[in-house]
Amino acid sequence: MPSSTNGLGDLEQAIMNHLWDTPTAQGEGVTVREVHDTLGAAREIAYTTVMTVMDRLSRKGFLTREKAGRAYVYQPATSREGFAARIMRETLGDLRPQDRKAAVLAFVDDAGDEDIDALREALARLESAPR
């Protein structure tokens, strides 16, 4: 059952965080065994549970996988930032246009100075980009 606003359960989120934080996952990928060895040290969890959850994350489009010998090698389908943007797009996309505008304005109202500066930079890039 999802326990966070991003729709991922605790184990799904732990797996995604592990893959985003593991340099080899970004390049050559990681196996279920490698993920289980790391996550299993912190919590009691069966190898088959990790395998099932990673398979589901792959089917949901959050992970990619390729056969490497007898095992699959997994990589994140997108960056952590790309994932957050996807969640925001999906959430905003479910709203009526006037509610979407209100949600964006509420987000900006709650943003700190660093976030506001980042938004200004992003808007400047968009405005200067050829269309």
TrEMBL record:
<dbReference type="GO" id="GO:0045892">
    <property type="term" value="P:negative regulation of DNA-templated transcription"/>
</dbReference>
<keyword id="KW-0804">Transcription</keyword>
<dbReference type="InterPro" id="IPR036388">
    <property type="entry name" value="WH-like_DNA-bd_sf"/>
</dbReference>
<dbReference type="InterPro" id="IPR005650">
    <property type="entry name" value="BlaI_family"/>
</dbReference>
<keyword id="KW-0805">Transcription regulation</keyword>
<protein>
    <submittedName>
        <fullName>Predicted transcriptional regulator</fullName>
    </submittedName>
</protein>
<dbReference type="InterPro" id="IPR036390">
    <property type="entry name" value="WH_DNA-bd_sf"/>
</dbReference>
<dbReference type="Pfam" id="PF03965">
    <property type="entry name" value="Penicillinase_R"/>
</dbReference>
<dbReference type="GO" id="GO:0003677">
    <property type="term" value="F:DNA binding"/>
</dbReference>
<comment type="similarity">
    <text>Belongs to the BlaI transcriptional regulatory family.</text>
</comment>
<keyword id="KW-0238">DNA-binding</keyword>
